[in-house]
C-alpha cells in the first residue's frame, strides 16, 4: 500500500529516539503550501525533525526536485507514495466540494501504515505555517488510552468572533446528518464541540491497538451506503469519521498551536497581535494564502520558497 521512495536511514539508534516525525501531504496544485509549511517548521526549531512527505505517484518527482533545488535541501525527509486504491468504494462522490475528495485528504486515516518505527507522530495539513518550536507540539501529553490529540473548536475565546462572523460550524451538528438514525444512535449531542483534524499528535501504539484505521474505514463505507455526512456540511468527508471515532477519546492540544479559520473569508481578519502570539496558523476554508483573495498572506509568504521549475505560481491581484 505504501512505497517509500528513496528512503535512507542515516541515524544511529541513539539519534532515532529524538526524531520528531512530521507527516505532511504534497498534492498537485498545492505544493507551494507543503513547501511553506516545511520551511516554517524547519526555520523555527533546533529539533531533529524527519519530514514524511506523502504524495501520489505523479506528484512525487516535482516535490522532490523542489526540495533538493532550494534551501530546504538540508532537511531530513522521506517521500512516501500513497496508493489511492486503498480508498476504493469508501468515498461517496459529492460534486459540491470536489477538492475535499482528493485521496491525500485521507492520509491521516492511515498513519500507522506509513510510520513504522515511531511511537508518536505529528500530522499537519498543508495549508498551515508554524511560528513556534515544533518540539512544543510534539511534547503534547496524551492521556492513557488516547490515540490522538486535537484542538477543540470551542477552545479559544479570541476566535469565537471570527467563527460567528463567517458562519463556521464548531459543533457536531455542522458535520453529521442528525436526520439519519445511524447518527442519532451514536448518542452524541448535536451541540457537542467538534475538533479540527488538520493538526494531530498521535500515539501509534494506541492507534493500532484500538484499530482506529478500521473504525474510520467502517464509517466511510457506511457513509457511502447511507449518506450520513456530506461535503455540503461543515467539514467535508474526512473530518466527520474522525469526529465519530474519536468522540470523548482524545487529548487536547494547546489552542495557540492551532489558530484556524484563516481561509474562511476573504474579508475577516484576526488582530496582528493575536496572530504574532500564535504558534501555528491554519488557512482552513476556501480562501488559501497562495490564491487571491485571501487574508494574512504576508505571514504565509514569509515562508514560501518559489518553485525552481516555475510550475507553481502565487495568484496575486497584479499577477
Automatic annotation (TrEMBL):
Keywords of the record: Glycoprotein, Glycosyltransferase, Membrane, Signal-anchor, Transferase, Transmembrane, Transmembrane helix
GO molecular function: UDP-glycosyltransferase activity
GO cellular component, one term: membrane
Coiled-coil segments on the chain, per record: none
Subcellular location: Membrane
Top-level taxon in the UniProt lineage: Eukaryota
Residues making up the signal peptide according to the UniProt record: none
Membrane topology, as annotated: Single-pass type II membrane protein
Membership in a protein family: Belongs to the glycosyltransferase 8 family.
Protein name as catalogued: Glycosyltransferase 8 domain-containing protein 2
Species for this entry: Calidris pygmaea
